[in-house]
Amino acid sequence: MSTLTGGSYPPHLDDAPEKDRLALAIKDWSIANGFAVRPPPAIASNDAGILAMTAPVTLFPSPFPKSCFAEAKAIQTKYNELYARISQDEEYLGGLVKQVAGGDDFIANLWNIHLRVKEEGYVQNLALGLFRSDYMVHQDGDTLQIKQVEFNTIASSFGGLSEKTSLLHKHLAKVEYPLLKEPISRSSLGDLPDNKSAERLAGGLAAAFRAYGKSTLGHPTCVLFIVQDGERNIFDQRHLEYALQSSDTDPIAVFRLPFSQVLNHTSIAPSSPGRQLLYHPPHNPSLTFEVAVAYLRSAYDPSDFPTASSWEARYQLERSAAIVCPTILTHLAGMKKVQQELATPAAHAQDQEPGEQATTAPSALRRFIHDEASYTALHRTFTNIYPLDAITPAGREARRLATDPDACQRYVMKPQREGGGNNFYRSAIPQRLREIPEEHWGSYILMEIITPPPVANTILRNGALEQGGVICELGVYGTCLWDQKTGEVVHNEESGYLLRTKGDQSEEGGVAAGFGSMDSCRLV
Ligand code: ADP
Ligand code: MG
Ligand code: MG
């Protein structure tokens, strides 16, 4: 049953010439407009940096409920503020880190970097978040309600390409869909919302760049994108860079530096109490820039830290005067454990059975949100999430559900990781739990699986078409700049959206991980 796929939209194309024409239009528009990724090494073994390939994308914008879209956009600035406050609550985060660190060296190491910097004292109080809150639509009878999948505080990607996806679908709506054998006119398609995600995310970076101010050492200032080696999703990042550089009157200097090269090409200004972060461009040793903003599109996965010096690189950034996006505390605020705490009612520990709908009983959310309207609005977007500790009744009951071969079918188990491909679904949960010592189960959280109303669409991936049932995940970007000491919020904006769509047989939906595709919303 579906309330979204009324009529014949999106169409199921059977006619080969018609499909080929649409696919060709998409392929050409994509390359012509930088809606692209780098090819995998197997294709580009000796790539001289000259190859690009189209990003996976749906042939049609998927139908998405208008009210859900509006709700997700409207709540973003509240989410920004919530996560800014969590980032400021070191004691609270420290307590959660303690709960997961036993089974999670990566989180423990991040926390230790924070402690080292705290000991010598932070020299930068401003913190910048380029966030993305992800949702799926949950159907309960006739009611459609967004439910949060996760909240990303580090390296939230696809803002650059998402703006292009919206433009591509608008182009097809004008030029190609009206030529189909069963034509779709632009007017019958209705509302294809504008999406300025690249521009708005760049706006967040620019706000931090301006707030940093001029170099007191007399250097030109810059924004440094700190990236992964061999990044294939480079154009997504490039679109943000170009947006920062494009102003005729006030262009911002932007550089890219692999995280593995941070210690080779940056330094802390010698004999300056300000601990300014200096960037020395490798191509011209006579140049020195002062880094106003260090924007991490890396350093979120253990594989980014192959050696002890990787941790020294992260330490160098954190202790510097650069505004780091995100700081360690903001990175840790994005732990799934935090999301679970916010969603788990405090009363749960005593008397609520896992599997019941989350009630409005006080949760950790109360610690951060005091006005009733904001509390209710945020709380509505939560689904049930449980700890897997051995102490609370909720944790113990969740352990029973996670190890039961039938009950586990309704859940996904998540570690404190980012970037896709880390979760355990349904039957894989008990299997995974058997592999790890029981005292480390608390490093994971258990979350109910959200099953959105079915939608059909066709995905164009690697030149091939995949037609069938799909699941859509909406992401809303947010940019926020705040003072860690005073709590003052300097900039707080909703910053555009992302729609990702995957085949309904796939558990994971990451585009970069090869499971999902880019999409945009047709509001219904
Ligand atoms: P990551 O930080 O690695 O992206 P996510 O929590 O977003 O981790 O999980 C990855 C993917 O798994 C999501 O994009 C979504 O497709 C799927 N997923 C995660 N949680 C749920 C859930 N509660 N219900 C349905 N699907 C989920
Ligand atoms: Mg994530
Ligand atoms: Mg995700």
Search tags:
single chain, 524 residues, alpha+beta, 24% strand, globular, binds adenosine-5'-diphosphate, binds magnesium ion, ATP binding, Glutathione synthetase, glutathione biosynthesis
Q: Give average pLDDT, whole number.
A: 94
Q: What structural class do helix, strand and pairing data support?
A: alpha+beta
Number of helices: 18
Q: Kindly provide the radius of gyration, computed on alpha-carbon positions and rounded to a whole number of angstroms.
A: 23 Å
* Parts with pLDDT < 50 across at least 5 consecutive residues: 348-352
Strand content: 15-25%
Bound molecules: adenosine-5'-diphosphate, magnesium ion
Residue share in helix: 25-40%
Report the span from N to C terminus.
16 Å
Biggest sheet overview: 7 strands, antiparallel
What's the β-strand tally? 21
What is the total number of structural domains? 1
Judging from the principal axes of the Cα atoms, what is the shape?
A: globular
